[in-house]
Amino acid sequence: MSRAMRRIAAVSFGVLALLTVWLTFQQVVAGSTYGDDPRNLRAIPDPDDPRRGIITTADGVVVAEDRDGVRTYPEGSAYLHLVGYMTADASAGLESTRASDLRPLDDGSITSWLITLFGGSVEPPEVRLTVVDRIQQVAVEALDRHTGAVVAIHPATGAVLAYASSPTSDPNGLISGDLAVLEFRENPAALDRVAFRLLPSGSTFKTLIAAAALEQGLRPDTVLEDKTEFLAPGAGLPITNITGGTCTGGDEISLREALAVSCNTVFASLAVDMGGLVVNDIAERAGFNSILSFELGAAISSISTAEELDADLGALAQTGLGERDLRVTPLQMVILTAAFGNEGEMMNPYLVDAVLTRDGSTLQSTSPESLGLLIEPAVADDLVSMMIDVVTDGTGRAAARPDMDVAGKTGTAEGAGGPHSWFLALAPADNPTIAVVVVIEGEGTGGTVAAPIAARIIDAWFG
Amino acid sequence: MSERTEAILLLAATLLVGIGTAVITLTNDEGITIDAYVAAAVFLASFGGLLFALKTWASRATRLLLPPVALLTALGLIEVFRLDRDLGRLQRYWLLLAAAIAIGVLRLLHGRGVEVLRRFRYLFLAAAFVFLLSPLLPSGLPIGGATINGSRLWIQLELGQRTLSFQPGEAAKVLLVIFFASYLAERNRGLAEMPRSIGPIGLPEPRQLLPLLLAFGVSFAVLVYQRDLGASILLFGVFVVLLYAATDRPAYLIAGGLLIASGASAAQSVFSHVQVRVDAWLHPFDDFSGTGFQVAQGIFALGDAGLFGTGLGAGVPYLIPAAATDYIFVALVEETGLAGGFAILAAFGLLFAVGFGIAIRSGDTFRSLLALGLTVTLALQMTLILGGVLRLMPLTGITLPFVSYGGSSLLANFGILALLARISHEERV
Predict the structure, then answer these.
(1) Residue A40 forms contact with B (CB below 8 Å)
(2) Which positions in chain A touch B302 (Cβ < 8 Å)?
(3) Does the predicted interface ipTM exceed a cut of 0.95?
(4) What structural domains does chain A harbor?
(5) For residue range B402-412, what is the model confidence (pLDDT) as tens digits?
(6) Shortest CA distance to B81 belongs to which of B400, B323, B321?
(7) I need a labelling partner for A245 at 20 to 30 A (CA). Which of A199, A298, B119, B139 fits?
(8) Measured between CB atoms, does A116 come within 8 Å of chain B?
(9) Counting Cβ atoms within 10 Å, is residue A293 exposed (0-12), middle (13-18) or buried (19+)?
């Protein structure tokens, strides 16, 4: 009998040990898995503990901090769409997505206990952005009194260097109560035009058409027919060029020249020749029609399906010029621009470089994440060399620099109140460290309005 | 352990109750209220009385029983008060009553010994059945059955304005363990004979399985008529373990395990309330605002706790449904952290070690089986509820001994404490 009893006792203690281990496991797993669950009321910062960490730029400028218990945004309207705000009853931007990272560390967790044990700081952490204030301020200033957006990323990593949207507004007014949150959300300044504004891309889309053509076996110096107009089979109105005649004045044009001068008839005819499948495919590879996992969320850039395009060749021709039903966000355009300068590989844009304790040790850091290969490296090299010609000899001359080659592409998209001006840029072209996308709504052509702004951003980056 | 150490530990637990209660009212900006003094006084009176009774009527009993029970009771008293002031105050009356009953048991058994219980075993069996069946009394009478949270295991007593709820199954649990122990102490030899065998495992005659099947039938009936999954598993589990201990025949464990497995799978497919529990266990977030809500809130609470918790009164454990009963452990972990959780598990570990020690050392079969049965009752109950709230198994509504709110549970468990102390006393005669 006592042998059985000893066994029963042993099993009981085994169960007790299992419960001990399981309790620890559940705490660690549940703590990390469900800490940010929106249904978890415990994840919301304690209203009785207003202390929150600071947000700084990559070059050390504080953009959000507590001053005497009041959340303050020292750079005012410059970071509204990026940093956002947190008030008692509303939050937006990184202030919302990083709410749990900004909580004080002395929260009784095992982590905080270990930190204290080894003499570390448990002050509210620092969230360090990838954004560089020097460039951000230039972008904000350049956008002043315009409606539009500037976004710049590092092509090799996807680290966002500038993220500006205009019009904007000072979030400190929301904290002080001068602005009511509900009214603010109706304000045009509330719209983040980098990730949520959908516009036709205009001729910047020709970069993707050119990439598809290179994939189909064309070379940059392949000679194509330079036509005065192009009428797609079944279409009502022919497509013409800005010049009114042919793009070169002659009747032959290379692919390289066609991109440099943004030759409409060539790209419309290329789109129709390649067909809906090819055009739709390269756009979808670039991320069109799918959800992008971006920290602040993003609208989905869209292109018609291959079937829809093939059923209406007029629409396919116009899609080749970035018009008709094509809609893109500046964020989408910067992802593919960066990919051209990164051997064809797309990187997911990210905003937070690291979360640090106040004495500088790293709590978490972001690793660059690939979104896959958009085009082969050889195709990317050819495309970039063609985009250099856009800046040296073509529509993008306003972005040219004496010290280095810049690759770019202009775009002028139809808009109700005037054309939307686009510019994509990579600098230096041979090994880019910055990819820039500028869009200004309703003010003119890409080469005259957006390209000079892109040039200022690039100046700030290398200046 | 010396008498002095024991007294010091009980005083420490008393201080814990007083300070813990004060911390809760202080966190709530109420200052130190009378509650802190009353709670400490009630606690001191209960355990002081118990200490005195043990010294008088069970002087040779181990001194290791009272301290872990005091710690568990103290934490329970504090956290129940933290979750619900009224329940917390009510729990103090239950504690006084429970201590009085334990003292009464020690007094009654003084001189006669636990042996006397064997004489009344059929009376206990009958009483256990009456208790088990009493919730099925029609409701509306001055004393009648009631369905709470979908289980019919309560009787309610109308006392003027107040309704006093009582779970007679808790008392039945102790009475049945006494019956099992005395029945098996007599029949163990017959039941241990295994005329045939497969390899090393002996096989009993079919008629030897009759008691096992009977116990299974009763347990299953409890599940069907009272919808009480926890009590059902507890009753059958304790019987199977005792049967194995009494006969030393693993065949009974295997047969019992097979019966539990088939019963569980049958219950899972037939009874919607069992099905719901299983779903909530495996996929609590699928029906977050419905059946999974309690389990999901428990997960959030555990995750938020950290090493030392939010501090007493500083967490939000009241977000979990049934926090004061089923989820008392998670509520305590949220506010006292992993450290508090380990303290509770350690206290149970010590209590079980003492209980199993008493059972193993006791020379007499009945006393040995009784001590084992009582200890296994506590251990199984703890396993069922902690396994449930920590998601090792589906949640079965059952109290955490000494910690959860619940008058009937407290009375029954203090009865178990008194019996264990008495057996320990007799074992050292």
Answers:
(1) yes
(2) 23, 26-27, 30-31
(3) no
(4) 202-349+371-462 (3.40.710.10)
(5) 999 988 899 99
(6) B323
(7) A199
(8) no
(9) exposed
